[in-house]
Amino acid sequence: MRKARAGRPSPANFRRRNPGELTLGYSLVAPILIVMALVIAVPIVDAVWTSFQNQRVIGSEADFVGFATYIKILQDASFWDALGRSGIWLLLNLIIQTILAFSTALLLQRPGLWSRLAQVWVMLPWVIPTVAVTIVWQWMLNSNYGVIYRALEDLGLSLGSPFSDPGVVLFTIILVNSWHWFPLSAVVIYGALTTVPHEVMEAAKIDGANSWQTFISVVLPIMHPILFALGLVGSLWSFNVLDSIYLITEGGPAEATTTMPVYVYNTAFGAFRSSEAAAASVLTVLILVIAALAFVRFARPKED
Known about the structure:
The chain is built from 14 helices and no strands. By secondary structure, it is mainly alpha-helical. Helix 9 crosses helix 11 (211-239). The longest helix is centred in the first third of the chain and has 33 residues, at 19-51.
């Protein structure tokens, strides 16, 4: 390994040889790093400070109460229910979007006219605004005049009340959200599949591996770094989805779709308890950080 890199300067030698270039590089990226730090740090510090107060309406006067707000949130059953729904939301979205994305990416790899056309229209759900997506799906699944609802009813499948039944409404919105966002993952996975060397695939065939064995033993290990990054970013992104849920049900019926983002939003702007919303936000961030560290610890690609 050292011989292969003998002609390239090591990072230590590069710093010693090019102090001017190193300073110039840091100077060029410093402004954007400072802006990003302020944009990220200021809201976090403000949320933490607000969580130690008893503020009702945002911006109003409040007293410092220490951890009393956190204790109140931790004793709130709605907080834990919302956290549990967010877990279900995250897991099902991850499973459904992964299946749809992988299936689409594998289909796009097949040569032919339909595959070339699909490379264009498969992105349509992703580029449609979320507001339009929610309205269209509410129309299509409406129990009185919905196209999909009527079609399934003609086939003998009754959906009941997909947006008003507390037992199924969360799963319905998960399907809508997965349909909206899976194209992004499909394109990333399709791009990753194109990086698999053709020679490696041919070697697996010569060794007698079938398609499934080739996919599990050859393709997945090569794609692991990309899938790892996609899984980490996609999970955090999916957990924080608010617009799709709020535009369809606003967290109802009977809090059946009140995930953590909806719980925080309703607490801050519906119940006007901004300090409790801030405390719930801080707790959510801590939970996500722990989950992300665990994901990195157990799922990150192993170095050769």
